[in-house]
Amino acid sequence: xxxxxxxxxxxxxxxxxxxxxxxxxxxxxVFGVIGTFAASQQGQPLRRPFDAGAAALVIVAALAVTxxxxxxxxxxxxxxxxxxxxxxxxxxxxxxxxxxxxxYFTAVLLGHRAVAAIVGIAGFLVVPWLDFLLRDGQxxxxxxxxxxxxxxxxxxxxxxxxxxxxxRRAEAVRMQEGEALRRAGEERLRIARELHDALGHHLSLxxxxxxxxxxxxxxxxxxxxxxxVAIKDASKDALTELRSVLDILRQEAxxxxxxxxxxxxxxxxxxxxxxxxxIDVRTETHGQVRPAPYAxxxxxxxxxxxxxxxxxRHAGQATATVRLAYGERDLTVEIEDDGRGATAGxxxxxxxxxxxxxRERVGALRGELQAxxxxxxxxxxxARLPLDGRDT
Length: 392
Prior knowledge:
The protein is built from 12 helices and 5 strands. It is α+β, with helices and mostly antiparallel strands and 392 residues long. Among the domains are: 139 residues, no CATH class; 134 residues, Histidine kinase-like ATPase, C-terminal domain (Heat Shock Protein 90), CATH 3.30.565.10. A 5-stranded mixed β-sheet has the order 1-2-3-5-4, covered by helices on one side. β4 and β5 form a beta hairpin. α4 packs antiparallel against α5.
């Protein structure tokens, strides 16, 4: 139910017209009624007095402008029809022209030039002749027709100029975004090369040396052999993780990985690594397990990884519990241990570099993080990650 709510609200906002357009339409309606009434007091010949019909046509034409951006062609047709009907009935000249001018300009601005040209030609051929055809008035003069034609061409040209400038600005923005993506891609490749050259060599060396030590030193105490096995396995997993990160960095921005290695499915692997280092780790999962957005899964994985690393480094002989709880709207991650707690770098107050990294990850998803010592001893990390987090 919550998912439907989250989806429907943006759609409702998308259908709602912008407030400036609403304000413009209301202003045109008020100005149109007042201006039309004032024009009716001028005593124009062959004109029908101001009445409710005139007010209704002016108001509807003005309010139609509200939807000019979403339905430019339809709004132009409706406003032109209302304006034509207004003059066919024979009401006084007045502000009824303003909604038509705005609808005409908007149609050209949004690229509907052919429709705007047809409306302009139709208006030029019909409106000036209405008094002559319907009310025995005089035919329009040549000067009046030339002035109307020039006015229509100027309006069309101004709208076309504005449309061209708008397209150029949009193209400039697209070029800037493309350049930014290109530079970001180059930076990702540079980082990938640096990571490969700097970390890959050392991790491979650690893995090889620990394997050699295990092979040559069969008489080592069990505790030493356990430590070497943990080092060997951890370096091997780190190399796998490094290759996964390098693959991600080398991918293009529009091909973001959907199934990276560091996800919640690998939480048990983290627990196994901590057990190999001498920590008793228990994992618990609550709620309905389901796929989460990549950003959420990656953040949860890194939080558990950093928390267990801190337990291994600082807690001594300890028992740690990792809890994952799937809620309706969020995923909560909790890691507790009963060890002696962190003793270096201010980590016990939640200010260590690892904790800072956790806060950054959680903050990017608009979640919350709590990290600090427990009253009964040990350390606790708690993170709440919204399941609608940015999947980037």
